[in-house]
Amino acid sequence: MSDRGRPVSVVVVSEQPVIAAGIERLLEPYRDRVVVVDEAMADPDAVVVYDVFGLYLDKDDDLERVVKRFPDRVLALSRVLQPGLTARALDLGAVASVSVGLPAPELVEAIENFAAGHLQDGSQADLDNQADRRRQLGRDVDLTPREQDVIALIVAGRSNEDLAGELFLSINTVKTLIRSVYRKIGVTSRAQAVAWGVDHGFPSEAERRP
Questions:
Q1: Helix 104-115 crosses helix 17-27 at what angle (to 10 degrees)?
Q2: For residue 183, how many other CB atoms are within 10 A of its CB?
Q3: 74: part of which helix (H) or strand (E)?
């Protein structure tokens, strides 16, 4: 329940109707604490539960819309097998993430804590969320902007020669940057680097194709 003594309004945004309906049914027994409302009717204090699968379908505009209308009120509904989508959602403005498989009592509690500002108030929950965001976005390894460009292009399937051409660098500089990236993210091969990048929100070659 919100600090004002009434249920927290929740907007569910998903490209899959079965997911939206499932979340609504999951929350139904807790209507005294949370209530699902239509986006058009929601007030600015509503909590938005955004299904990250929309990013897989190239629906970035839906997330951008709700982030703009409900700033600092968006929870990413994560998918276990697609961690990169969660990272992208966080990078685009979602404040935190909750698993699509979270039991109803835990989901309700997470929504209430989020609505009360406990993920942005300097509390332990806030610190834990910040650490989780940094991990999911790959910012805990302190990649430089140039190194981020390198891993992004590697994940996108570019060769070393492609990297040199697109970044206007010599092939030897590219190789040096790649070694530095590998060391920071703890991998030893290109395949491992691609897997790490996908897990941390860098679009893969397949995701970049229409």
A1: 90
A2: 11
A3: strand 74-78
